[in-house]
Amino acid sequence: MRKIGLTTTVPVEVLLAAGYKPIDLNNLFITSKDYSSYIDIAERDGFPKSMCTWIKGIYGACIENDIQEIVGVMEGDCSNTRALIEVLELRGIKVYPFSFPHSHKKEDIKKELDKFMDIFRVSIEEVEKVRIRLNKVRDLAKEIDKLTYINNKANGFENHLYQVSLSDLNGDIDTFKSELKSVISNIKERQTIDKKLRLGYIGVPPMTGDIYEFVQDFDAHFVFNEVQREFAFPRADKAENIYEQYYDYTYPYDTEFRIIELKKQISERKLDGIIHYTQAFCYRAVEDIVLKEKLDIPILNIEGDKLNTLDARTKLRLEAFLDMLSDFKEER
């Protein structure tokens, strides 16, 4: 199978129907033991230090791992992706464009998906067959999610890891499906996690994966990962077709549409507070203003940059926030 890199979650059903092995460059970057070398590659090639680390990491991962074809999301994801794509094309990498229309109209989304299918010469029937197959894997991810917020047996990092991995299914559907089944079986055998505070994580998946372990020392655990859950398409089984599925995907569209689902999950999961993670030099940091205004729940915004672990200042801010939530919960 030919490898194809992804700059973010895209209609992977189309790529699989076309016989490709999808590789999420974000996951390839952040899970590398030497992730900082990917950043160095980008900066040596001229990427400024004041640019988002994820963009530089994606570039480095693409170059270092000899990815010759990628799907670049031109609208609905990162504002820097266009520039990234221009540099990758300069390096001889074949780029296939895809957009999540800002209009968020069904007819526009259908037009983009049809265009994407035409590029890879696959039919809607072929894509729907793959979608049905993937939905069985997504059901397993939903089970891990329920084991997190209902049964309190899966921890926040596991919830994050197995949902975010749905972007490319770790490159192999059947192997990933078997892994999920094994993980679910093991989690079910555990004792419940007994923590005082129930946290939500919103925003892009973190560079600092140790945040999930850190909060446990303060009688808290994450029972909701917003964007990771969207990458796993938890409502895909309710969509009649791929067009509806990608219409009901909150991540790439306007904040108002995203907030509807956030309010629902805050209530359903009985969250005490939210950590909003943003990346340095990313326009999405401005969304924090809107989220704090629209969501009736305490929110702490933390910012990541190059480090893949929490720095001392962020740990101090998290500790103070969790102490405040604990006091507030006791008062209630």
Automatic annotation (TrEMBL):
Its cofactor is [4Fe-4S] cluster. Belongs to the FldB/FldC dehydratase alpha/beta subunit family. One of its GO terms (molecular function) is hydro-lyase activity. Pfam families: HGD-D. This is 2-hydroxyacyl-CoA dehydratase. Keywords: Iron, Iron-sulfur, Metal-binding. InterPro entries: FldB/FldC_alpha/beta.
